[in-house]
Amino acid sequence: MAESEIRDVFVAGLRNAHAMENQALSIMKPQLKRIENYPEVAEKLDRHIRETDGQIVRLEEILDGLDEDKSTLKDMVLSFTGSAAALGHAVAGDEILKNAFANFAFENYEAAAYKSLLAIAEAGGYGTATTGLQANLSEELAMAEWINGNLVALTTKFLSLRQSGETAKV
């Protein structure tokens, strides 16, 4: 593949990742506002929202270094779909569980995107981008691991709250 083609693929991937992170924010922020009975989830989600803000900054720095801008249209479209997905779970009786499942899947999707971007950066000789991309990847993997490690406890707490008649959704 020609160097210019690798660059095009890399820039498109960075723009997609930027939009993906904005979508993640549009999914997580409404969830955080609705959480009442799961302070450990709220704390982790709040921390990951701040990490996601940092991931967006890193992606913008990489794009700036390539003299490229983000895709505003992709950002808007994916943010809208993320908000719609978050609203869809809000009506479910087991919203907290559905959110955990969706977040786990999305964190792994994001990790896959960063692994791919790292491979493209290596193939294209964009070594200056790897530090930021690796940091983003590490944060996504850590969040996915946290969800994975806490899913049984979250489910057990959901069942306990539901059995005691307390609000179990969020």
Automatic annotation (TrEMBL):
Record gene name:
yciE
Is Amino-acid biosynthesis set as a keyword in this record?
A: no
In this entry, which stretches build a coiled coil? 49-76
What is the superkingdom listed in this entry's lineage?
Answer: Bacteria
Please list every transmembrane segment annotated in the UniProt record, as residue ranges. Answer: none
Q: Which InterPro entries match?
A: DUF892_YciF-like, Ferritin-like, Ferritin-like_SF
Q: What is the lineage of its organism?
A: Bacteria, Pseudomonadati, Pseudomonadota, Alphaproteobacteria, Hyphomicrobiales
**Pfam families, sorted:** DUF892
Q: What is this protein called?
A: Ferritin-related protein YciE
Alphabetically list the UniProt keywords.
Answer: Coiled coil, Plasmid
